[in-house]
Every structure is written in C-alpha cells, then in structure tokens.
Write a structure and sequence with these properties.
The protein is mainly alpha-helical and about 120 residues long. Helices cover about 50% and strands about 10% of the residues. Helix 2 runs antiparallel to helix 3 and helix 2 packs across helix 5. The chain has five helices and two strands. A hairpin with a 2-residue loop joins strand 1 and strand 2. The protein is elongated and about 65 Å long. Strands 1-2 form a two-stranded antiparallel ribbon.
Amino acid sequence: MKNHDLQLCSSQRYLRDVSRQVRDLPSAHRKSLLSELEAHIHHSESRGSSESEVLSALGTPEQVATSALESYEDETGRSAKPSRLSPRGTFQVLALTAAGDCCTVRDIRTGLPWAGLEG
C-alpha cells in the first residue's frame, strides 16, 4: 500500500478505485456516479451503518464500475470504451503470408492485399 493510501479512509479509496475503473465514461456521467456513491455512503453512515458495511453492500469497485459501464451502454447505445479505430474508421485485421523472401500483408476478412491506411 502506498503512503498516501494510508491517509485515505476506506470510502475515499473505494471512490478512487471506482473512478479509475470508469475513467472511460464521459466526464459528466463519471462525476454523477461518484457523487451518487459518495452521497449514498454518507447517508448510510449517518443512519448508523459502518463504513465497511456500506462498502460491502455496494459491491467491489470493479462490480460497481461494470454495472455503470453497462448501464451507460444500455442507455446510450454507445460503448464507454475509447475506440481504437484506424483512420478509415474500421479495425484493420491483418495477416502476413510468407512466400520465399517476400511477405504480403493481407486483410483477414477479404484475403486481399492490404491497401494501407489511406483515408
């Protein structure tokens, strides 16, 4: 555990971990989620629940993040994950085929020689 982790209470570490897990959500959605979680934690603690009980009931940061990412995708129809697209706007799946001393780069989907990244 890092030194600065020792200064954070469990709920602060929990919120930090959730924030890291949902870093691909748009900023407004991420801030709203974290604000709601923080409010829930404080409300539950003010009603007598211990911090560990509240965090345990919420689930792990990974579970909360997975749920939040799935909800975002269900609501918007868009993935929260950043796209890793080529300039053409599609994934280029490639295969190298060796023929003697020469290699040809081929698009796996079509089997045709790959045309490169021209736009």
